[in-house]
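Why do we care about 3D structure at all? Because function follows from shape, and shape follows, mostly, from sequence. That is the central idea of this module. The next example makes it concrete: a single protein chain, its amino acid sequence, and then its structure expressed as tokens.
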Amino acid sequence: MFRCRRECWGCHSSVNMISDLLQFHVLVPWLLGMLFGVFVGATPGLTATMAVALIVPVSFYMPDPNTGLAMIIGVSFTAIFAGDIPATYLRIPGTPASAAATLDGHELAKQGRGGFALLIDLFCSSIGGLIGVGLLIFIAPQLACFALRFSNFEYFWLAIFGLSMSAVVSAGNTLRGLIAAGLGMLLATVGLDVVSGAQRFTFGNAELMGGLGFIPVMIGLFGVSEVIRSVLSRSSSAESALIGASGKDSIGSAFKAIWKNKIVVAKSSLSGTVIGALPGAGADIAAWAAYGMEQRSSKNREAFGKGEIAGVVAPTSANNAAVAGAWIPALVFGIPGDAVTAIVLGAFKMYEIKPGPLIFQQNPEQIHSIFVIALVTQILLIPCGYAGLKTFGWILRLPRSVVMVAVLVFSVVGAYSLRNSLFDVYLMAGFGLVGFYLESQKTPLAPLILGLILGPMVEENLRTGLIKTEGDLMPFFTRPICAVLVLLLLAAFFAPKALEWIRKSKEAGS
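And the structure:
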């Protein structure tokens, strides 16, 4: 185990790496990307996933791969934080991960302490991110050593487990999540057969031989679908009544409040990292779990939902830690922890980076760069986030129609620029309609995204395993790690129903 960590960290000095990253040609695009993340995250309806999907095409034009990775990683963290801004002032979550911030954060804003709540959000997001990245650095190499024992059989069940978790934790019922995951896997079969090389579902179109373009699909699902929804609803979220924007609470008072709740920060950051590492869970689940855990364990339960500081600290510490936690399965197993890392894994393919346990031995310099970028991002989050707090009022006063036009322009340019192909623009538009329809039917998009990413992994490992065993399925169930993954999969589906049945039985008995 020590050898794995040494290979990961022993190639370059961290100080030299940081100095390279802080060069002008890297730092400027990095900061601009983070500010773009603040803009998207703070605009209600525009998600962190959409922000990453829109920034990925831009990152490909950076001369240094580390610059592109810095932009992508920076956007993901800042967008998650910035979603708390409209959640606090307007009670409209900027991103799904910010929904928990509408409770106590908005109540503080109604009391004239919105700026105070957002300063706590900003610093707790940075602290939570640092804790999450720290755990990523120490846990990921050790997991990679363990993952070297995995073969096609284990990777098959790991991919199935990731898909299933995304369906289990999806908003709405599990069945719709499973349908979305199945649709994603079906879409992943378009192109050339992973084993025989035969064409599948291409309908004679050469553009489809390489499969559905991942980035146009992502931009369509999250960017264009939101534009369609906005046009059809004709509603405006650009309310400018910034309640609670007084500046009577200083940075010092925010630090005092955080220090008073330091145990809450530590617990929420740890739980957020663990939940974020579960494939399909994501920052929104982590935020709600941290809020609920703190409310249940607090001596002032009745204060939650009425402006309780711990109710602000817990979710915002957890959601940025969850972003870091989602990188653990992404780097170690090549399985995205959430929709954002699903897009990042697609970008990795463009950069010819192959996540998995061997990357820690074969490409330690790249892993080192990702770790250092993630750490420095948590520091840069503070000035970028503070700038976002100051400019938020101006952004909200823009008509929503202007914002949607900008999103549509970014979407078209981003889809076209990857291959200079109009087909990708049409693909983006088509999946915009698909995304709009699915969300109108309360069908979550996260399982579809994971299905699209993990579909080839499921198919390739299943078919390769069957070739090895000459069609015998038993090794998929009898190997020890496979058996554990199968049991975890069954527990994830049936344990909640069993616990609910036990609870009802006890209530009936009493």
